[in-house]
Design goal:
single chain, mainly alpha, 5 helices, 68% helix
């Protein structure tokens, strides 16, 4: 069984996808991949906070976790986490009628996820 990726590895993967280190596929595909890596990194950080506060709480749905988060961290951090998570969810999914996230959008989300992860964990890139 493969070892789960760490938050820092996922953030690094998103960075590599954004700068085009991984060749193949389309730019939009790389942007969606970066969005998925960012969303996963954010979700892992949220899970760590919730599991430290109430063991088992991290096993609920993403929306429920983000609603609970404000009870265990600063309200502004919880709000920012919920907002960027919502954007990333949209950026991860393919819709025939949408062009997908742009590099600038994903770069802005990367910056926001980095800030939120630092606020949640007290460390990280």
């Amino acid at each position: 069984m493969p070892t789960p990726a760490s938050v820092s590895e996922l953030l690094h993967t998103a960075d590599c996808l954004l700068v085009g280190e991984f060749h193949g596929g389309t730019a939009v595909g790389r942007h969606r991949g970066a969005s998925l890596a960012l969303r996963t990194a954010l979700e892992i950080s949220v899970d760590q906070v919730l599991d430290a506060a109430v063991p088992g709480l991290g096993r609920t749905t993403g929306r429920a976790k983000l609603l609970c988060l404000r009870s265990y961290t600063a309200a502004e951090t919880a709000r920012r986490a919920r907002a960027v998570w919502s954007h990333l969810c949209l950026g991860c999914h393919f819709h025939q009628y949408e062009m997908g996230p742009t590099r600038d959008q994903v770069s802005a989300w990367r910056t926001e996820v980095g800030v939120v992860v630092r606020e949640l964990t007290g460390a990280g890139p």
